Every structure is written in C-alpha cells, then in structure tokens.
Amino acid sequence: MRHFGHIAPELRQRLFHQEPAVFTADSPARILSAALGATLYSPATRPRLCDDVVKQASRGVVSMVLCLEDAIGDADVADAEENLVQQLTALTARAGATPADAELPLLFIRVRAPEQIPDLVARLGPAACLLSGFVLPKFTEERGVPFLEALTAAEAASGRRLFAMPVLESPDLLYLESRRETLDAVFRTVDKYRDHVLALRLGVTDFCSSYGLRRAPDMTAYDLQIVASVIADVVNVLGRADGSGFTVTGPVWEYFRVQERMFKPQLRRSPFLAGEVEELRETLIAHDMDGLLREIALDRANGLLGKTCIHPSHVMPVHALSVVSHEEFSDAQDILRPERLGGGVLRSAYTNKMNEVKPHRAWAERTLQRAEVFGVANEDIGFVDLLAAGLPG
Q1: Which Pfam family would be a valid example here (predicted)?
Q2: CATH label, 23-322, candidates 3.20.20.60, 3.90.226.10, 3.30.365.10, 1.10.569.10
C-alpha cells in the first residue's frame, strides 16, 4: 500500500517531487507509525464490514479501527464480536495469500477488556493475519498493563506481530492534581513495552466529557484551553524527539454535516483561487471542513502526526496536509547534509528563513520521515491540488 496509491500513476508523477513510498503491514514500526495518517474508525456491528474495508482502501484509507468499544452499545458486544470474526474471515478469503495481495489497510480492533484480545485472535484463526494490532481504551498504568500482557501473549500464540495503540483519555490525565503522576506512569508502561507500542492516540471527546464540553465546528481542540493543556503535557512527556518519545496522533474531528455557522470561515481564499478550485473551497466550508483543516495544521504545529477519523470525508484532508512541501523538504535536506554536522546557520534555498542546523535537526529528521511515507509535493503543488486529486471522483 502507499498514500495516494489510489490515484493514477501519471497524476502522482505530476503532483510529487518524491512519491510516497510503498509499505506493508510487515514494514518496520518506525515506518508504520508515521504512515498511519487518517485512521478511520468503524463500528464492528456493520453488516457489510468486509465490503467497507475494501471500499475505503480503494479510496486511499491506509489504516482502520474496527471498534468494539464506544462506537457500539453495551448490549451489542457479543454480536459485534461474532460479526467481526465472520467479516474478517470473509475478508481473508477475498484477500488471497496475504493482506498485501488485496492492498488492504492496516487493521486494528478496539477492545473493551484485555481478555478480548487472546479470545478474538483465537476465534479468528488464520484470519488473524489481517490484524496489525489492537487499540487499548482509557489507558493508564493500572489499566494498561493487563492489556499489554494480553497482547504479547496473543502475539506469541498466533505467531503474528501485533501492535498496541493506547488511547489517552482517562480523567486522571485531565485533572491537574493527578496529571503528572499519571503521565509518568503511562510513560513507564509504554517504555517497558516499547517494541509493541506503535502510536499513542488522544481521546479528546472523553476529556471534554469530564467537564461537559463539546467544541463547535467553528473551533478546534486547541481553542478549548483545558484540552489544549493536556495535549501539550502529553507531547511534553510522551512525544519528545530525543529518542524516548512516541508518535502521538491528533484528536477526532466530530463534524461532517452542514451546521448553521456563527463565525466567519477560517479557510483562506487565495490558495483555492491559485488552484482554480473555488468550488472545492465552498464545499469544504459548507461541510465545516475549514475547521478540520485548521485543526490538522495545529496538530502538526504541536507535534502530533496522523488523526483519528470517524467519517471518510476527513481522510483526504488529513493526507493532503501530511504531504511534505517542496520548501520543507529543501530545508530539511540542507540541514541534514553531512557537512553541516558541526552546526551553524544558513539561509534557506527559498531565501525566506534562517535554518539553524543544530536546533532544527530533530525537525528535519521528522520531516524526512514524513516525506518518506507521504511524499514531497512538486514546487508548484499545494495542498488543494493534493486534496482535489485524492478525493473520490
């Protein structure tokens, strides 16, 4: 699979200076954690789940979560488990010899309890080859260790590499008096199981619930100061660029239908006029996508990569804004040239900024990692061009 692999090769050549790399579910963890992109959630109760997975893969989705937790009712768990086993078994038959043969997304199951992990892997049998891992809800040290122990046991029993994606959404992370202790304990836990933790996911909806909050479509998670402070502390402790950190993904965007608008649209007009796609701009505004685009940009600025998504229309905006611009790529390459190891300051090739080699080195390394999986846009290509090309026809 590859990002933008669903569009024609000749169009990719027009869009990209460096095309996104091909990867598989067996690629190294550093590649997969950066490549998650827009992780699309789907309730495990969907009667045509197998078809949904194939359909979304054909539209550019590269990671999906099949949810047995908050997306379904408490009374539906047993039926959802059975449906999940049946649907993944059918998907295995369709996929052929390996998941790569059908170019399926990375598939994860969001469970409620640790015992579900070995039980589902055993019930899936050969179909467990489709799984890349499990999403672990409301993760703390106390709750998380049993989940991670169950995952490692299931991995050993199945012979299949399985990753964990803990969700940071506990009130203990939100409350000021317990936040530091909880974050330190979470770090100890995920550090111990580092080889199994692919990424950490932020459960901002649960954070908001603790205070009876819900952000409007005109606002981002960063406009809710109590939520923004948690994101900052999570990145501070768990997202460092010194080798101790993990990939932390952006929070879910809840809106996908037209709402009455209170504030002026946040989406600038000029890039759309330059790309002659004003109609696309109006569509995005009408469907509250301008807020989503702003939040994706703020995710990146605050050290997050990838995003939880609950609607297919959110996928391509996340991926289009994840592509490395030609200017970013040029700066990163200049900073990381072998002759620059001693440090120093240089003017960017675009002659519009200072690149200070030592302070910007970690940024440059992360930028080139993102460039590997999302590609580098050609010099005359902006995110609107990428978005328009990636949307279903």
Answers
A1: C-C_Bond_Lyase
A2: 3.20.20.60
Under DSSP, the state recorded for 324 is: B
8: burial class by Cβ within 10 Å (0-12, 13-18, 19+)? Answer: exposed
Residues 6 or more apart whose Cβ sits within 8 Å of residue 211: 174, 226
The structural domains of the chain, with segments of one domain joined by +, span 1-20+324-393, 23-322
- The pLDDT tens digits along the chain (393 residues) read 999 999 999 999 999 999 999 999 999 999 999 999 999 999 999 999 999 999 999 999 999 999 999 999 999 999 999 999 999 999 998 876 455 556 899 999 999 999 999 999 999 999 999 999 999 999 999 999 999 999 999 999 999 999 999 999 999 999 999 999 999 999 999 999 999 999 999 999 999 998 999 988 889 999 999 999 999 999 999 999 999 999 999 999 988 754 444 455 555 544 544 554 556 555 555 455 788 999 999 999 999 999 999 999 999 999 999 999 999 999 999 999 887 778 888 888 888 888 888 999 999 999 999 999 999 999 999 988 999 898 876
Round to whole Å and give the CA distance between 64 and 106: 6
Q: How far apart are CA 199 and CA 234, in angstroms?
A: 13
- Token duo for residue 24: 């598989």
d(CA 277, CA 164): 40
10 Å Cβ neighbour count for 4? 22
- Establish how many alpha carbons lie within 13 A of residue 92's alpha carbon, considering only the half-sphere containing its beta carbon: 14
Which residue has 């999302």 as its token pair? 374
- How many other CB atoms sit within 10 Å of the CB of residue 269? 10
Contact 147, 104 (CB under 8 A): no
| Calpha distance 46→354 (Å, rounded) | 52
Q: How many CB atoms lie within 10 A of CB 72?
A: 20
Residue with tokens 């990163």: 332
State the distance between the two ends of the chain, measured CA to CA, in whole angstroms.
20
Which residue, 145, 49, 66, 169, is CA-closest to 108?
Answer: 66
Predicted TM-score (pTM) above 0.85: yes
